[in-house]
Design a protein that fits this description.
Keywords: Oxidoreductase. α5 (157-177) links the parallel β5 and β6. This protein has eight helices and seven strands; from the N terminus they run βαβαβαβαβαβαααβ. The radius of gyration is 18 Å and the shape is globular. 42% of the residues are buried. By secondary structure, the protein is an alpha/beta fold. The structure holds NADP nicotinamide-adenine-dinucleotide phosphate.
Length: 260
């Protein structure tokens, strides 16, 4: 059977664990070659081994994408190493969340989340445009249910702001890049058991931690929170030519969370 992403080259930010790694393995299994970007080189190495086992050629780049200079250096390197190959897919997946009550939000927290969750997708997409296949490239932004939904005990002013901005950015970029044949969509996940979620919960007051972990599953009509590979089908569809007429969409994959 023909692989749906055969011959494609995909850049996946935050590809060393969690959702990004699951998507990298799904893309590799469908025939794509993969460029993984995250900060920790050791984690990237372990992830690359797993992705290669799925059949892909894999490049890894250690870069803190919240920093504009790092993003420029990354793009310069990618332009040299991949000078004979166009980028078909960019998954802007790296993200961070800090849940702090409004009265205690610091400028540092604000800038940290805005820089990684909004500035990185915007400016990485901008600087990778000359390297992307036109027509045909696909950009996928990893949003969150927190763009639209607020939960007690999860004070999400800044995180919600960043994911709401990412949804608006997705639509604006889709509109502007459509004439060039580049599609831009977002996946909006519900809760998934990853390091991001575990770290977020561990930063809450101790008495809230168990309560949050238990109560969150009960919010899901499907009876469970997400698994990292719950997004693979949609991520492959959005990267493939099957979605040639899908652009500007914010697609919820959340076990029905948003229904209540
Ligand atoms: N988990 C959830 O419940 C959930 C729900 C909705 C939306 N999301 C969104 O899904 C995306 C992935 O989340 P996840 O849960 O899979 O996270 P995760 O398991 O914590 O993985 C995050 C990935 O991003 C990388 N990363 C973090 N900061 C970075 C930086 N400054 N520069 C470059 N890479 C960085 C991490 O590697 P290094 O640490 O080595 O850099 C890692 O590869 C995020 O955008 C998140 O907002 C998650």
């Amino acid at each position: 059977m023909t692989k749906r992403l055969a011959g494609k080259l995909a850049v996946i930010t935050g590809g060393s664990e969690g959702l990004g790694l699951a998507i990298a393995k799904a893309y590799a299994s469908e025939g794509a070659d993969i460029i993984l970007v995250a900060r920790d080189q050791a984690k990237l190495g372990l992830a690359a081994t797993q992705v290669r086992e799925c059949g892909a050629e894999v490049q890894t780049y250690a870069s803190d994408l919240s920093d504009g200079k790092n993003r420029e250096e990354l793009v310069d390197t990618l332009a040299i190493i991949n000078r004979n190959r166009k980028i078909d897919v960019l998954v802007n997946n790296a993200g961070t969340s800090v849940f702090t009550p409004l009265g205690r939000i610091t400028t540092r927290e604000f800038e940290g989340q805005v820089n990684l969750n909004v500035a990185a997708p915007l400016f990485l997409t901008q600087s990778l445009l000359p390297l992307m296949r036109k027509p045909g490239a696909s950009v996928i932004n990893m949003s969150s249910y927190f763009a639209d939904k607020l939960l007690w005990n999860r004070p999400s002013s800044v995180y919600s702001l960043t994911k709401g901005a990412l949804n608006s950015l997705t639509k604006a970029m889709a509109f502007e890049l459509a004439p060039e044949g580049i599609r831009v969509n977002a996946i909006s996940p519900g809760t998934v058991d990853t390091a991001l979620r575990r770290n977020t919960i561990s930063r809450l007051p101790t008495e809230q931690q168990a309560e949050i972990a238990e109560s969150i599953s009960s919010l899901y009509p499907s009876g469970r929170i997400g698994r990292t590979d719950d997004f693979n089908g949609l991520a492959v569809y959005l990267a493939s030519d099957d979605s040639a007429w899908t652009t500007g969409a914010i697609l919820k994959v959340d076990g029905g969370l948003s229904l209540s």
